[in-house]
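G.,

No rush on this.
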Amino acid sequence: MRPMTARRSWATQAKGTSSTDFHPLFFAGVVIDPYIDYSRYMDIICAVNALEALAHETRLNVFRLLVQAGPTGLTAGAIADHLDARQNTMSSHLAKLHRAGIVTSERDGRHIIYRADFDAVSGLIVYLMEDCCGGNAEVCKPVAASISC
């Protein structure tokens, strides 16, 4: 499968050849090996980004507050008021969580409603725990039992 024409022409310009010399395994100056599974690498990058976003006291408190709010979510102002933080600072924290993919946002008139992305966080937990205990389910039962609503 060939990349889009615009990308192909950009890649060939980077390579310094004509579009007829395009090689599908060369893209934007990087050689792509068809025998390497890059999907696991992307999982690692996504997990690191999510954990990095949560590795700040304020952002962790914001995320926990959004989890408590559930599907209704909260505005940046309501979050800032609840956590006694400035709204402009809160917006930058929410942007970091949003870029990490663990918070969603939806415009509602003049306000933006932020919600915890439960599917993304569930995926992160599954990724972190998928090789738990070497397949011994008995060892993992207490961890699974502690996560209850």
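When you get to it, here's the other one too:
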Amino acid sequence: MAAGAGESGAAGDPQAVATVSVEVAFEVQVASGRWALEQWRVASIAPSEDPQALQIALHRDEAEGCWLNLTTDEPSVFVLWRREEGESPRAIDVTVSYARAAGWMDGGEQVDRVPMPEPMRPWVAEFVDRHYRPEAGRGKRRGPKPSFMRGEERERMTEEERRRFGGTAPGVVKP
């Protein structure tokens, strides 16, 4: 991984398994028209040697969120940021965990997504390989959901469940 990547936590985050320092760059677009509106967004992230830089910290309890991110068409880095009126924006935190970013957004925070730099992907993938195991039994349901089945398919499924479960389908009370 890039310079600044480390194992066994970081000075600022003893719970982290691995960290990497990054800097965040913003860009602004000014809409022309009756009112001049500025729209800020995160433009990119890059590795940083600055000791004051933000840290992407990988935590064992966020391994599933990292896995979800890596399995998308475009893995991303999520940046939580704020901007006070009349000031430039400032990044508050960064993550590669879908779950953590979703929590920020659920809390009403401003979160932007940027593509994960190619050199970062193997680093996150190695972490996921070491610390994430999908739960047994979790998987895609085979076949259509009952609500989307045609009448005869639904009846056949109900009959199979009755045979398997001793006369009634699960959740069905005999009259």
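The mean pLDDT is 82. Residues 151-164 form the longest helix (14 residues).

Enjoy the weekend,
O.
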